[in-house]
Amino acid sequence: MVLLEMSIVPLGQGESVSQYVARCVEIIERSGLSYELHAMGTIVEGELGQVLDLMRQCIEEVAKSANRVTCTAKIDYRQGVTGGIRSKVASVREKLGRVAGPN
Amino acid sequence: MVLLEMSIVPLGQGESVSQYVARCVEIIERSGLSYELHAMGTIVEGELGQVLDLMRQCIEEVAKSANRVTCTAKIDYRQGVTGGIRSKVASVREKLGRVAGPN
Amino acid sequence: MVLLEMSIVPLGQGESVSQYVARCVEIIERSGLSYELHAMGTIVEGELGQVLDLMRQCIEEVAKSANRVTCTAKIDYRQGVTGGIRSKVASVREKLGRVAGPN
Amino acid sequence: MVLLEMSIVPLGQGESVSQYVARCVEIIERSGLSYELHAMGTIVEGELGQVLDLMRQCIEEVAKSANRVTCTAKIDYRQGVTGGIRSKVASVREKLGRVAGPN
């Protein structure tokens, strides 16, 4: 399984981008994949082909409203690991000697 | 205020990096700045000079254990806005018609 | 057309990554798309679906040699523009009052 | 020595960003550090503190013209290596069995 973090920003459309993020979140929710929204992007967990196809759909959705769109993405491809959205943070907290809980 | 998202990875040190993230989180906690850890990086809020200095300290800490270190970072510099770690996610949730709550 | 910049790094495989980059460049060359290799990544120009499929192939190629692979990517999606690998740099040089030439 | 790749984009200022890149290139040139401009960002080589300070100056320069500025950056920190802007590409070309030359 793969974690994909992405952040999509239209250029020349004002400085607020939350309406575009919301439209992408709706696409991600329809996919049924696990996801997490944070202040600098959205993380999705799935197979590599699935998450890249989702990124393509999100970019094309934002491009309906803007002639130019930039997207930054990061992929963590780890064979044999699932549930990474939660387990990676838990693993760091464990090293810090903290019990699991809200960040 | 600025949001800085960073992810620091040593090369050639095995495939688990959580111990290095934990050491960076300790440096960030000592700074007293607001931060949030997620599965693909850590977000810190502060003045531009502050967060870049923190990133330098974290890279140098990881470089104590590895000859080569890569760091990816993203900065959201927005004049006159504070509390962005929480408010950006809340703004997207509002557009989605959701009340505030756990992600 | 889209510019995709990507950088793929296997974890736990030593600190030199040029052999993995070379294998990705061979995949990109076979695609026939325009590309440019620089010190921090590789830029490819094509349709959105094409360049994402190429990125997937490159990640899967590197994953043959490593259990964990990270990839950072940036996409510049600009409708109606082609040749951006060259024209974007030329546009900056023009603003600087320089004639076109080697960087 | 460190390679820093950065890309700075103002939000809400139109879809062309080359004038902002040009102003950053002027700041980088005044620093005297080696740099390379490509279609998706600018690479600078220097000490970690130097290149981060340069990034801060560039962000602040672009922020004079825009209320919101985003910056993506990647750092390759490799102890005992200099000249990486050229040598990294040369190393890949060597693996590909090509002699050095224009990309």
SSE map:
Four copies of one chain form a homotetramer.
Chain A: E1 2-10, H1 18-31, E2 34-38, E3 41-46, H2 48-63, E4 68-78, H3 84-95
Antiparallel strand pairs in A: 1-3, 1-4, 2-3
Helix pairs in contact in A: 1-2
Protein name (chains A, B, C, D): Thiamine-binding protein domain-containing protein
Domain Thiamine-binding protein (chains A, B, C, D): 5-93
InterPro entries (chains A, B, C, D): MTH1187/YkoF-like, Thiamine_BP, UPF0045_domain
- Domain unit count of chain A: 1
- Which secondary-structure class do the elements of chain A indicate? alpha+beta
Task: Please identify the top-level CATH class of chain A.
Answer: Alpha Beta
Instruction: Spell out the helices and strands of chain A N to C.
Output: EHEEHEH
- Rg of chain A, alpha carbons: 15 Å
Strand element count of chain A: 4
CATH architecture annotation of chain A: 2-Layer Sandwich
Chain pair sharing the greatest interface: A-B, 35 and 35 residues
User: Per DSSP, what share of the residues of chain A sits in E-state strands of 2 or more residues?
Assistant: 25-35%
Largest pleated sheet of chain A: 4 strands, antiparallel
Tell me the distance between the termini of chain A: 24 Å
Strand order of the largest sheet of chain A: 2-3-1-4
Estimate the helix proportion of chain A, in percent.
Answer: 40-55%
- So what's the oligomer here? homotetramer
Low-confidence stretches of chain A: none
Treating each run of at least 4 consecutive H or I residues as one helix, how many helices of chain A?
A: 3
Organism (chains A, B, C, D): Lacipirellula limnantheis
Pfam family, one (chains A, B, C, D): Thiamine_BP
InterPro entries (chains A, B, C, D): MTH1187/YkoF-like, Thiamine_BP, UPF0045_domain
Family (chains A, B, C, D): Belongs to the UPF0045 family.
